[in-house]
Amino acid sequence: MSDTAAPVWHVGAGSTDTGQRKANEDAFLAQAPVYIVSDGMGGHYAGAAASAAVVDAFASLVDVHDVVPEQVTDAVHRARFGVAEVSARAGGESGATLTGAVAVTHDGQPWWFVINVGDSRVYSLDGGVMSQITVDHSRVQELVDAGRITVEQSLVHPERNIITRAIGDEIPGCDAWLVPARPGMRLIVASDGLMKPLSDPQIASIASLAGTPEDTARRLVDAAVESGAQDNVTVVVADTLHATTAADADARPWQRWPAGQEFEDDTTQASRRKVSP
Fold first, then answer.
1. What are the phi and psi torsion angles at 239 (to 5°)?
2. How far apart are CA 65 and CA 211, in angstroms?
3. What is the distance between the alpha carbons of residues 70 and 202, in angstroms, rounded to a whole number?
4. DSSP strand E in the chain: where?
5. How far does Cα 192 stand from its chain's mean position?
6. How many whole angstroms from its chain centre is CA 128?
């Protein structure tokens, strides 16, 4: 770090477990300024290789200061290229989810740049209230949005494991939001292995009461495993230490990316759901 570099305003850590699976196809990166999780698909080799390729695409941002959103979207493009190479080597289709947050600078201010492809999730825990930032790319989310099933019904729906977007498909880009970096805010990034055995209130309670990001990630993973997690479980937790985004951020808490698209313009009831522990 140079003498002129801005002080680090965030800290994070991650944890993972195979659950009841034979192998772990999840991967994560929790090194400043990158806090992401990827859940691989396509069988043991292809799935693990796909999620590893997603994480590798973001490795060049580690320890980089003043990352801008465009560098993050470039990493998403590299992730797609990497997963395509995995599919070619495996002789079949493979893919992975991608979700997480990267600490960025935008208009001279610190922000969390939250990205998502698939059904892994990012939650914010701010002022004792947990909110889901990302919107699942899944068949059941589409049914919820259409009013055909409830959120509660989606948890046991026979198509709950079907996702509609992934790194590895032909749909370019990703969903992205600029989230204010407010002191005390905690981000929880998780593969769907966490949300299957644990409810949102349970996640909020554990994340509120635990201490460091490392302790919080471990406790969430352990709780999911103890509750009978049948899938791989991966959690990354990132805390905002002392950054403060622009004063008007409270009025517009989440902004869709590219800039100018408000979060509320393209959201769902699920993403607006707030949970108090």
1. -110, 140
2. 26
3. 35
4. 10-17, 26-31, 34-41, 95-96, 98-106, 109-117, 121-126, 129-132, 175-180, 186-190, 233-240, 255-256, 261-262, 274-275
5. 10
6. 20
Token representation of residue 219: 């406790």
Rounded Cα distance, 175 and 105, in Å = 18
Architecture per CATH, domain 10-275, reads as 4-Layer Sandwich (3.60)
**pTM for the whole structure:** 0.88
Contacts of 91 (CB under 8 A, 6+ apart): none
Cβ distance 39 to 118 under 8 Å? yes
**C-alpha count within 13 angstroms, C-beta hemisphere, residue 130:** 21
Amino acid at 73: T
Sequence ranges of the domains in the chain: 10-275
Integer angstrom CA distances of residue 196 from 10, 46, 53, 169, 191: 28, 23, 25, 24, 10
Sign of the dihedral through C-alpha 183, 238, 277, 140: positive
The residues that bridge with 111 in the sheet, in sequence order, are 104, 180
Which pLDDT value is given to residue 225? 97
CA-based nearest residue to 83, from 117, 120, 115: 117
99-147 pLDDT, tens digit per residue, is 999 999 998 999 999 999 999 999 999 988 999 999 999 777 767 667 7
CA distances for 154 relative to 50, 124, 143, 194, 225, angstroms: 27, 22, 8, 15, 21
Output the six-digit token pair for 4.
Answer: 């002129």
